[in-house]
Design brief:
Strand content: 5-15%
Shape: elongated
Number of strands: 16
Number of helices: 29
């Protein structure tokens, strides 16, 4: 039996070994999330819950276009766009759940691995740019242990940041080496980014990137066009199908924005006092907290704050690299990245330069931006790291110049590290990691200048220690902070999706606070209902999922007397209110000869009321009544709802301002409610299937041929 040569195995998998090793360390530091002792907080909670709602419905063969669990029902397109439903990687969560993992653990495992994949993409991108695997490895370590990890567990930036990194990797790889693998990768991640609720974060930077690329690298443009044209000639069908895929992936988002203009759905908390008809528009003043304030509040990028919100941290090693290359001969790439970053910051300054005010007034999607400081994690942190890595390359190039004098470079490196020590000491924070970082960093740069590394293994090992010794101390302190506030799931989406919740699992006091709060995302009609009806009347009325009444009263849509309505709700009168402009208002009384004085509230199943089936988009009931009645379903009204009674389509009436109602005939009634049109489901399923096909093509091509060398 041949002897195993571990040295050959190590040499063959040299870079994968050094990629995996820090990831294991990173996971060990974050082990509190894997044990669920620590949980995601902030905006991440909502995103995890809506992702759960989407993928678990999809696993049952249902695309949830309606969410019956969010404030008595809303169109779910907002949440689907927000998480990006054409991302095929969500299927990994379903796979992990099928292995027996609970959703919380499966989701944490997925996001940790998804984040890591973005770091690997950053390594590959850096290697494409600098053609040096040591420099690329430094970028990988710095970004992996930056504050982006915190944004992973308390916000949603990674939903956009990771696809952005992968997209630019595939774009640059395809521009250098046109092939189907890189083309499909570029298409897939472009679709993932373009089909999210806020694709404009990516669009703005991508347009800036293209503009400055044409200005800085105009001589390369004809060469690139020639390469692209050559690829198109050979792969015409693939390119055409991909372009069709991209264009159709924009349709759901366009329809979503169209509905926002019609204001069938609104975001009161976000819209505020904006005069725009677009429901997602934010007032100009909402954008006053921007990128510069976030950077100034980050304590010189040296800490992770316990509240886990305002964090712009990168390992301090990057500032040493930046200083080493500060007086070297500048390159075009460094200027290109610097200009891209500075212009992006200037565009979103709400004061000073006039750019933001002009763009806010004249470009519609600038009115949608509320958290412009998220660009720090979307773009600016990765771009800054690439800019610093270019400084590294500039410094190394200066070492190759004729008549170089090592002692001068050693002395300059000593000055840089000495100034760094003075600065770190002046902050008054006695950290062992800071001192060790300076020691190992100077040792690394001294050996680099003198070219005295005994082997590449020593070079990678010393670099890893120099970069990681400080952030590991900070990470350990932050993630073991036992009193760090965390937000736990509300439990809304723990309900089985095939069981109609007759009673809310959340206490009414949590859902309807004593003081009227501003709702985040609701239908327009429910927001009007909520804001104008007292809490006592709301609680009493909404305890009934279904109501049967005998009388309708017509009211004017433009002049609703909410005091009058509230009185009837409190008294539980046998009465429902419908608008005068409804089509089905000729019948206002049932044929019951002796109708009861009170409405008949239905809070659960019984012999005359059965739920035959239920899911996010559909409800099927069996109702048997002696006389005709008007059924109110206290799930919010939307024009896209359709209903049939005993196979005959009936008009869905907007009842009691915000909810759905239909007339039922005497005897046995089989009632079916359905949300949306067939083409909506078909379009989304086709696009989702196409994303899986593209991903399959990428995996297949990657297995057929090795396109990347480490």
């Amino acid at each position: 039996m041949p002897k195993i040569s571990w040295q050959k195995i190590y040499n063959a998998y040299f870079v994968p070994f050094w990629i995996i090793l820090p990831f294991i360390l990173w996971v060990l530091i974050l082990r509190g999330f894997l044990s669920l002792r620590l949980v995601p907080c902030g905006d991440a909670v909502s995103y995890l819950e809506h992702t759960k709602f989407f993928i678990e419905n999809l696993a049952r063969g249902k695309l949830p276009l309606w969410d019956p669990l969010w404030y008595h029902g809303v169109p779910n397109d907002f949440f689907l766009r927000r998480i990006g439903i054409f991302n095929p990687f969500y299927s990994i969560i379903v796979f992990l759940e099928s292995l027996g993992l609970p959703y919380a653990l499966a989701s944490v495992c997925f996001w940790l691995c998804y984040y890591w994949s973005g770091m690997i993409a950053f390594y590959l991108l850096s290697k494409r740019l600098f053609n040096d695997r040591l420099i690329a490895y430094a970028g990988y370590l710095i970004l992996l242990f930056s504050a982006s990890t915190v944004r992973l567990i308390n916000s949603y930036e990674m939903i956009i940041t990771i696809p952005i990194i992968w997209f630019f990797y595939f774009l640059i790889a395809f521009s250098q080496t046109p092939c189907r693998l890189f083309f499909l990768g570029m298409i897939l991640f472009f679709v993932i980014l373009a089909s999210t609720y806020i694709p404009f974060y990516f669009s703005v930077f991508f347009m800036l990137f293209l503009l400055f690329f044409f200005l800085f690298y105009y001589r390369h443009v004809p060469i690139l066009i020639q390469r692209y044209a050559g690829f198109f000639k050979v792969n015409k069908i693939l390119v055409i199908l991909s372009v069709v895929f991209v264009l159709f992936s924009l349709v759901p988002g366009a329809l979503f924005l169209h509905n926002a203009v019609k204001q069938q759905i609104i975001l009161p908390l976000r819209h505020g006092d904006s005069s725009s008809k677009m429901a997602f528009t934010v007032p100009y003043i909402e954008s006053q907290w921007g990128i510069v304030e976030e950077l100034m509040d980050s304590s010189c990028f040296r800490e992770l704050k316990p509240q886990g919100s305002l964090n712009v941290y990168v390992p301090f090693f990057v500032f040493i690299v930046f200083a080493l290359g500060l007086f070297c001969r500048i390159t075009r790439l460094a200027v290109f990245m610097l200009v891209c970053g500075l212009v992006l910051i200037c565009i979103f300054l709400p004061y000073g330069p006039p750019f933001y005010h002009f763009l806010y007034q004249h470009i519609f999607f600038f009115k949608i931006f509320r958290n412009t400081h998220f660009y720090i994690w979307f773009v600016l942190v990765p771009l800054f790291i690439l800019f610093v890595l270019e400084h590294w390359r500039m410094f190394e190039n200066s070492l190759l110049e004729p008549r170089r004098r090592n002692k001068y470079y050693l002395f300059y490196a000593l000055i840089v590290h000495g100034l760094a020590f003075v600065y770190l000491w002046s902050t008054g924070e006695d950290r062992i990691g800071d001192c060790l970082m300076l020691i190992f960093s100077y040792l690394f740069w001294s050996l680099t200048i003198l070219r005295r590394f005994p082997s590449e293994t020593w070079k990678f090992a010393l670099l890893a220690v120099a970069i990681l010794v400080q952030p590991v101390e900070i990470y350990n302190s932050f993630f073991s902070f036992s009193n760090r506030p965390v937000c736990r799931s509300t439990g809304i989406y723990d309900t089985a999706f095939d069981r109609l919740p007759f009673d809310d699992s959340i206490d009414a006091a949590d859902k309807i606070p004593s003081g009227k709060g501003v709702l985040y995302y609701v239908t327009m009609s429910y927001n009007i209902f909520y804001q104008n009806i007292s809490n006592a009347a709301l609680v009493k009325y909404l305890k009934n999922k279904f109501i049967l009444v005998d009388h309708l009263q017509l009211i004017d849509r433009s002049r609703i007397d909410f005091v009058f309505l509230e009185k009837h709700f409190l008294q539980e009168d046998n009465l429902a209110f419908v608008f005068k402009d409804e089509r089905d208002v000729l019948k206002i009384n049932s044929n019951d000869p002796s109708p009861p004085a009170k409405m008949q509230g239905i809070t659960g199943e019984h012999s005359g009321f059965k739920v035959l089936s239920f899911d996010a988009n559909d409800l099927k009931l069996a109702v048997e009544i002696p006389y005709e009645k008007f059924l109110i379903y206290n799930d919010n009204y939307d024009p896209s709802w359709r209903a049939t009674v005993n196979g005959q389509e009936v008009h869905v009436t907007q009842a009691n301002v915000a909810f759905k109602g239909i007339w039922l005939v005497a005897g046995k009634n089989i009632i079916e409610f359905h949300y949306g049109s067939w083409w909506q489901y078909a379009m989304n399923f086709i696009l989702l299937a196409a994303s899986f096909m593209v991903l399959g093509g990428i995996i297949g091509l990657g297995l057929m041929r090795k396109y990347e060398t480490y």
